[in-house]
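Module 6 notes. Inverse folding takes a fixed backbone as the condition and produces residue identities as the prediction. Think of it as a translation problem where the source language is geometry and the target language is the twenty amino acids. Below is one complete input and output pair. Work through it position by position during the lab.
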């Protein structure tokens, strides 16, 4: 009988313990969803191998409530500006980057407090817990004695021993305000006593490292003031300049072959003048020489497709490009950018002129997209609009050739009758990847290009 009672008592205790644990787990699982309301919005891949961007403008601030597809911010890569939109409905709780800071692809841009029904039921509890945690975080975030907050929000720690920090805390002193005399800027006990006036000024002799640093600063300040020389300025490369650094570093790995020539543009000057009225009717306010140069290059690329290829070093092979996506250097307020005009082989001069004008306009307004830069196969640069004649353009990897046109000048030349006549001469400079293109190929390509510019009536055949 006793055994039976003990067995029943044990079973009852086990059942009671199980139910108690089950209720506890149920309560924990019920609370868990409300703790998972905050999500991080990561910067997604915007293509073209871009790994970082610069935040140019925020359209929202902490505390704003946004919906899906609302604009959050505008970022600028080394190629284009992109507007980032929201993927969530919710309230913004944290912004991770200030304007002009670098944001990495795959890392958080901002945090959302996502709005959902289950979370709303516990809004009161969540708010109170958030307030408590925020207060505790704020207390923890306050700089202690010896810590100063820098301009960018980081902390600058003043070197000092624990005993010195305790002394500073007792007198409610900020160590950052105490002139140090210890090695490498360390604050000593004597420095605090001198700062408090408990010892005469000058009692503590600065360490040689402090004295040398002070003398150097005084010398630089005195020299700069005496000579009126402005102070040096350090600027971190970003945006277009950073892209130039990367592109030109890759370009230096390419063995460049240079070739130059002169083109008589006299006939093209007259031919263009005859087309100006038709160009205006077609939506091109001013027809420049550049569309003719681009179309002539496309025709030459058809005859010499190796110039429209790219080199795959990994497999030691050439990739012949079917489309003639000709990149054009454009000067913009952000710097020199090189978008491309797609499928020039299937467009006439007026169509190319329209596409070129659209690229120039988007470049001036900073609205070029990654698509405008993607899949370029050959490049042209019209440096002549700035000045100069001959140059040595740098190839944009993985392309294998580039051309640069100089300024068109009126110069004396001999005609077929040995008479001196006025001629409109433009110089051109080519650079080719000598691992792929030899001198004969580049010269032959240039001759075809030159032929169409000197005899513009040939364009009617294409």
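Target side of the pair, the amino acids:
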């Amino acid at each position: 009988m006793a055994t039976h009672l003990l067995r029943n008592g044990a079973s009852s205790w086990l059942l009671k313990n199980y139910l108690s644990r089950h209720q506890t787990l149920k309560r924990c699982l019920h609370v868990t969803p409300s703790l998972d309301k905050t999500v991080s919005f990561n910067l997604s891949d915007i293509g073209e191998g871009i790994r970082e961007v610069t935040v140019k403008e925020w359209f929202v601030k902490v505390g704003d409530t946004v919906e899906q597809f609302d604009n959050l911010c505008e970022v600028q890569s080394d190629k284009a500006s992109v507007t980032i939109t929201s993927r969530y409905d919710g309230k913004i709780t944290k912004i991770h980057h200030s304007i002009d800071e670098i944001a990495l692809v795959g890392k958080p841009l901002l945090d959302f407090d996502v709005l959902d029904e289950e979370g709303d039921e516990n809004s009161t509890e969540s708010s109170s817990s958030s307030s408590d945690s925020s207060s505790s975080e704020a207390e923890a975030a306050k700089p202690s004695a010896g810590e100063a907050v820098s301009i960018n929000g980081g902390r600058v720690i003043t070197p000092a021993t624990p005993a010195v920090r305790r002394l500073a805390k007792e007198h409610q002193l900020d160590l950052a305000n105490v002139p140090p005399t210890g090695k490498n800027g360390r604050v000593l006990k004597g420095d605090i006593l001198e700062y408090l006036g408990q010892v005469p000024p000058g009692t503590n002799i600065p360490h040689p490292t402090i004295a040398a640093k002070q003398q150097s600063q005084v010398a630089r300040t005195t020299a700069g003031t005496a000579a009126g020389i402005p102070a040096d300025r350090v600027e971190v490369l970003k945006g277009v300049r950073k892209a130039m650094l990367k592109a030109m570093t890759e370009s230096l790995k390419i063995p460049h072959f240079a070739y130059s020539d002169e083109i008589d543009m006299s006939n093209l000057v007259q031919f263009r003048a005859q087309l100006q009225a038709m160009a205006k009717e077609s939506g091109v306010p001013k027809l420049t020489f550049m569309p003719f140069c681009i179309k002539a290059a496309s025709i030459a690329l058809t005859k010499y497709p190796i110039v429209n290829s790219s080199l795959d070093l990994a497999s030691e092979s050439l990739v012949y490009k079917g489309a003639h996506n000709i990149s054009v250097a454009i000067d913009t307020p952000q710097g020199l950018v090189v978008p491309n005009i797609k499928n020039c082989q299937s467009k006439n001069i007026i169509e190319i002129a329209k596409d070129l004008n659209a690229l120039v306009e988007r470049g001036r307004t900073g609205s070029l997209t990654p698509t405008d830069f993607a899949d370029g196969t050959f490049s042209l640069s019209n440096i002549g609009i700035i000045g100069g004649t001959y140059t040595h353009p740098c190839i944009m990897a993985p392309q294998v050739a580039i051309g640069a046109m100089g300024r068109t000048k009126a110069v004396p030349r001999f005609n077929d009758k040995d008479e001196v006549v006025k001629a409109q001469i433009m110089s051109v400079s080519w650079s080719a990847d000598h691992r792929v293109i030899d001198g004969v190929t580049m010269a032959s390509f240039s001759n075809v290009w030159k032929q169409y510019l000197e005899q513009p009536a040939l364009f009617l055949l294409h």
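Reference fact for the lab report: The chain has a mean pLDDT of 80.
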